[in-house]
What we know:
The complex is a heterodimer of chains A (324) and B (294).
Chain A: H1 2-12, H2 23-29, H3 31-53, E1 60-61, H4 67-70, E2 72-73, H5 77-84, H6 86-118, H7 123-134, H8 141-152, H9 158-164, H10 181-206, H11 210-218, H12 223-248, H13 255-261, H14 269-272, H15 275-285, H16 289-317
Chain B: H1 9-33, H2 37-43, H3 55-62, H4 65-97, H5 104-116, H6 121-131, H7 138-142, H8 149-162, H9 165-173, H10 178-189, H11 191-207, H12 210-215, H13 224-233, H14 236-244, H15 257-291
Helix pairs in contact in B: 1-15, 3-15, 4-8, 4-11, 4-13, 9-10, 11-15, 13-15
Amino acid sequence: xxxxxxxxxxxxxxxxxxxxRNPLRKLWKYRALWILALPGMLLLLVxxxxxxxxxxxxxxxLNFAKGIWGSAWNGLDNxxxxxxxxxxxxxxxxxxxxxxxFLVVNTVLSVxxxxxxxxxxNRAMSKFYQSTMLLPHFISMVVVAYLVFGFLNxxxxxxxxxxxxxLGREGISWYMEPQYWPSxxxxxxxxxxxxxxxxxxxxxxxxxxxxxxxxxxxxxxGKWKQxxxxxxxxxxxxxxxxxxxxxxxxxxADFGLFYQVTMNSGMLKSTTExxxxxxxxxxxxxxxxxxxxxxxxxxxxxxFVLIVSVNWIVKRISSDKGLF
Amino acid sequence: MLDNNxxxxxxxxxxxxxxxxxxxxxxxxxxxxxxGQNALAKYGYSxxxxxxxxxxxxxxxxxxxxxLRSFGVSIVVTAIGTVxxxxxxxxxxxxxxxxxxxxRGAISLFVLVTMLFGGGLLPWYLVYTKFLHLQNTLLxxxxxxxxxxxxxxxxxxxxxxxxxxxxxDSAQIDGASEYxxxxxxxxxxxxxxxxxxxxxTIVGYWNDWFTSLVFISxxxxxxxxxxxYNTLMNAQYLQTVADKAHIDxxxxxVQPLEELRMAxxxxxxxxxxxxxxxxxxxxxxGLTIGAVKG
Lengths: 324, 294
């Protein structure tokens, strides 16, 4: 009896077929696909998985002379120390604050730009505007730092020398005065990312079925009504998804922006330090590996929790739009 | 009522201003690089210099070797990195796209996890320096950018949606091996997605300065962006250029350090500015493929 039952199950699952009789055979049959997948998997293993196993370093008193394994465990001391410093609190505050401001400003301006771009009737001009506004997205942050320096260079920069001086005002030592930097960084971020954002929204607008507009026009809806009653509702799901994804990344910053554009100036840290620059400076400038690993782990864990919960929310809103 | 085929003048003005805002910073540094040094010292940076002078570019031509070398490093890294990256990414994505591949779910998860969790900068740094010992090698500039999980998923989606499985079957009935199918059937049919991801990868490698900052300390291996970064942060290189060009330092003449700086930025922007108009439409297509899935 028992053996008969097993055979039926086996047959149902296809275990009797030639390729599947033995797991090793199945592995062998698809060896070519394995070999194609292998280089990529090895890269991920080295570049992404090995560092994951390194998170335990946050619980060690790392000493390069003793080596990674020889260094003593020190429990939560790295975290205790980190949270007793003032820096970490304002650093976390900046990271979240800048990200929220960037998110709101970029979304509003990108959607606005996309709506207006859609009203540009001349195709050639529309392409031209898109190109010029997209250009900053493809310029490295190093060059962006040069461009900003062109305006803010304390001795010769355009603003001090050609704007403030003719007005009879004293020049500002921009790279030493932290209070201006939240605005400067926001402007630079807008300059660099709004063109990119608007094209993503424009792609959605272009995809809207023209029949909606034709029907609306027959009913006497003007441009404004069409925009608020048709275009915007179509954009809302995209806005929600992109916003949620940005919230999932709220604990990490654009390192290039905060490091290059500020020239990593120590004088500006009280308004420009974010977790990414904090970890970098702790690790490669002051050599404080304990602080760097504790802050790094905090960032990884919070980032993970945020991304997974955001994905859960996205899936609840629209099941097919999840990240995974 | 306004003519429906004409753009509203306010919109035209808004976009002309935005386009100008995007271009003006480049114009400013171009003009600084073309300024005469005395005028610059007197009047500062301006959009229309009072005195044009190519002195900065003459100076750079004088000691072009470090710049050319960093250009070379960037070109080699970008070329090798992009080709390798496309091969590795598409090969992995192709395996994942095959519905009959028994372990595709597990491997997908393996790829996905890297998008969710990372070890942070310190462990990553230690893997490359203490474990692989790649510091101060070209490989340190190439390997970190080779594979992004997101690109794998974009390519997998392309393969599953744009290449009919029957095509793969018929190729294999005709006797093509898996590798032949991949190289001679799949890749030629996937040029749009390869071009898209390829362009992003090129831009990524070309604009990268971070891996140089972290892993490279030998000035022979500086890539262009890192070389620029160094020049902005300290004027040492500029000083040597100026000294080598036998400036008469006894006179009151100011050395053209600022023009030199901006001339270097212009030289670095030039390739992107020249290529960008031709590639722009692919970028836009790629952005929309990459950004809005489904």
